[in-house]
Design goal:
The complex is a heterodimer of chains A (about 425) and B (about 260). With about 425 residues, chain A is mainly alpha-helical. Chain A contains 17 helices and nine strands. Chain A starts with 11 loop residues before the first helix and ends in a 5-residue tail after the last helix. Chain B has about 260 residues and is an alpha/beta fold. A six-stranded mixed beta sheet of chain B has the order 6-7-8-3-9-10, with helices on both faces. In chain B, helix 3 (about 95-105) runs parallel beside helix 6 (about 155-170) and helix 5 packs across helix 6 (about 155-170). The two termini of chain B are about 30 Å apart. The chains are: A mainly alpha (about 425), B alpha/beta (about 260).
């Protein structure tokens, strides 16, 4: 590759590289360094997230990482294979419950309580779990979900487009029903049960080999908090899954999936067996969903069946629309946007609240926007749950969300990734306009 | 006489009450350029669709090198070495030219989802080797400047060429060309004719061509079959077909016909 002519490629290998230019390689390395510095809590770098997300910024960011893995999965199914699915939450749930059945604390299988014996709040005892280590439950959560995907796939060959979307909605409700029916695995329907922690054990020993859930020195080198360790672990897993997704799209299988998305009959005439590849698309997508679901539940510690609802599936469709379907970078951008916007809004209102309290320089703005108690006409209610006007932060988030999706659909169908491509092309061509 | 590779025997295809093809038989020989002509709705494209098993004829038999391909899935037929282009371009619009041609290489490649996702050295080597084959085709069709464009953005004539290239990438033994020059201007038509002749001379691939451009058909085809209302009304060399009174009647109703003189 000629250094001063970044667009000149001298081998096919370079042409298929993930970061083909020196600039992209440099930007990616820099981004990687920033991620590490963020994790270590370096003072200047971490001031940016703490400005938007408050001092506990690492929590929403770490919480987002498993969701990004699941989002990569829905991108493979919807963005690459072109099969619109609203059942992603179901597959995440399958992965998560496989994880908790294999890794959760319980009194082994024989102690499982049949659901009709105990419908009250089930805690610890009476729940199934084999207590196996993470290197067993994590891969199997992916495999379990992938199997569920394979079972569902035949429906995708029969129905297309919106019809498939409706069929997959059914999955979510089947999942919710199963959650209600099987408290020995799922725990109480509202409050759920505990998930295995993100600790690495060889087998069932008391002290884990590598702990991700206790503050302390790692390998006797760096002192890290629990949050930082989980951040590093999840970001590494996410990085690996991003690489796999990228490799898939640039190899034979990914092209076959895209061909089915674009023209399924032509793909078949070109020698791509449609059914096998649709099934494969479902399997890989569900594998990502299962891993993402298991890690998400494990990171949060406690999950209830209601968490795997249609809203979660819709979140992922929003991620694809806002980020830009079909691209790995777009999926990650979309996840960041969709998952962190509510947190930013929350931080903003909290900050406004502090302004009123301390009579700060923008207290006037806070007075206009916030409503405390009655007799005030601000649009944002500081109460926890407020139906009607003024709306609570939670409902404002939903409104912002909806408006953003509509705006992206109208103005930038390629999403954030499309905006990035436009900006990039502008600078590439500068000072020419085309 | 060369050995026949494809034998179609008495196929009949019905859609409800409509008989699209009625008892049509023909055979294509090794290295031959066989052409099917006929008025709109005569069943030409339907014959292609039965050969690639997108449609299943109710009666008759289609044999590839002596073995029946009836009831196989379209991808199995493709794996046997039968490639085709489409009348209304059926490229993968969001993929680039290179990706479209590489998809044509699908049946000649082996790396699967696992080796692909892990981007193993073997998978990588295979991708690069096949990329070279694709570049040969790009050179052959003289479309290098469009290489990395999504095909949806390409002009119509170039899309037709890319579709031909995608079929060639499959290294077929029989190529079905469905109106390769439909909607093209004179210059593009001449280019396409040259490519078709080159394919026959250099690669020795047998072809079946459906085409309305009589000048092209009469110039380059070895044998021609004429269809009308789903029935075969004539078959023979271009000269024989031009003189056949049934053909003249089918095209003009009656009177003289001067095919191929334009």
């Amino acid at each position: 590759m000629a250094f001063n002519r970044p667009m000149l490629r001298t081998s096919y290998q370079e042409d298929t590289a993930i970061f083909p230019t020196y600039f992209q390689k440099g930007a990616a390395s820099l981004f990687f360094v920033v991620l590490i510095l963020l994790g270590l809590g370096a003072p200047i770098v971490s001031s940016i997230p703490s400005f938007f997300l408050g001092s506990t910024w690492i929590n929403p960011i770490t919480n987002m990482l498993p969701l990004a893995i699941a989002a990569l999965g829905i991108n493979i199914l919807v963005g690459v294979t072109g099969q619109v699915s609203l059942g992603h939450a179901f597959f995440m749930g399958v992965g998560a419950y496989t994880a908790v059945a294999l890794g959760g604390n319980g009194d082994e299988w024989q102690a499982c309580v049949p659901f009709h014996q105990e419908l009250g709040l089930l805690e610890q005892e009476g729940q199934c779990g084999l207590g196996l280590p993470i290197w067993i439950w994590l891969p199997f959560s992916g495999i379990g979900a992938a199997l569920a995907g394979i079972i569902v796939a035949p429906a995708a060959v029969k129905v297309r487009g919106l019809y498939l979307a409706i069929v997959t909605v059914g999955l979510v409700f089947i999942g919710l029903h199963l959650g209600r029916m099987l408290p020995s695995i799922a725990g109480d329907f509202e409050s759920g049960r505990k998930w295995p922690k993100l600790d690495f054990r060889l087998w069932k020993e008391e002290t884990p080999l590598v702990s991700f859930t206790e503050d302390g020195k790692w390998f006797g080198l760096i002192h890290l908090t629990e949050e930082q360790k989980q951040y590093f672990l999840l970001i590494m897993i996410l990085g690996a899954f991003m690489l796999f997704a990228k490799n898939l799209v640039r190899s034979r299988t990914g092209r076959a999936l895209q061909a089915i998305r674009d023209r399924d009959i032509a793909a078949e005439v070109m020698g791509v067996p449609e059914f096998n590849y649709k099934r494969l698309g479902f399997a890989i997508s569900s594998f990502y969903a299962g891993i993402g679901g298991a890690l998400w539940a494990s990171y949060n510690g406690r999950m209830a069946p209601v968490n795997w609802s249609l809203f979660l599936s819709v979140d992922f469709i929003a991620i694809l629309l806002i980020g830009g379907a079909g691209t790995v970078a777009g999926t990650i951008l979309g996840t960041i946007f969709v998952e962190l916007t509510p947190e930013v809004v929350k931080t903003f209102t909290e900050w406004l609240g502090e302004q009123t309290a301390s009579n700060g320089p923008v207290a006037w703005l806070a007075n206009i926007l916030l409503t405390e108690g009655s007799g005030d006409f601000g649009p944002i209610s500081t109460g926890t749950v407020a139906l009607g006007w003024p709306m609570s932060v939670f409902y404002w988030n939903l409104v912002i969300y909806g408006v953003l999706i509509i705006a992206f659909l109208i103005f930038e169908p390629m999403g954030l990734y499309g905006i990035w491509v436009k900006v990039r092309n502008y600078w590439k061509r500068w000072p020419f306009s085309y | 006489m060369a050995e026949s590779i494809l034998e179609v025997e008495g196929i009949t295809l019905r859609f409800g009450g409509v008989t699209a093809i009625h008892n049509v038989s023909f055979q294509v020989n090794e290295g031959e350029l066989y052409s099917i002509i006929g008025p709109n709705g005569a069943g030409k494209t339907s014959i292609f669709n039965t050969i690639s098993q997108v449609y299943r004829p109710q009666e008759g038999e289609i044999r590839w090198r002596g073995n029946s391909i009836m009831g196989e899935m379209p991808d199995v037929v493709a794996n046997l070495g039968i490639a085709r282009t489409f009348q209304n371009i059926e490229l993968f619009p969001q993929m680039t030219v290179v990706e479209n041609l590489l998809l044509g290489r699908h049946i000649r490649m082996k790396n699967n989802w696992l080796s692909g996702m892990l981007w193993t050295p073997k998978a990588r080597r295979e991708e690069m080797e096949n990329r070279e084959r694709v570049e040969d085709i790009i050179d052959f069709l003289e479309i290098p400047e469009w290489r990395n464009h999504p095909v949806a953005l390409l002009p119509y004539g170039i899309q037709k060429l890319v579709e031909l290239g995608r079929a060639l990438a499959m290294e077929p033994e029989l190529l079905l060309l469905d109106e390769p020059v439909a909607g093209m201007n004179l210059e593009e038509t001449e280019d396409m004719a040259r490519f078709i002749l080159d394919i026959r001379r250099e690669l020795g691939i047998a072809m079946i061509m459906v085409e309305h451009d009589m000048g092209l058909v009469m110039d380059i085809a070895d044998r021609i079959m004429v269809l009308d209302f789903g029935e075969k009304i004539a078959e023979g060399t271009p000269e024989e077909v031009q003189r056949n009174p049934d053909v003249i009647a089918a095209y003009l109703g009656s009177g003289d016909l001067h095919i191929g003189e334009a």
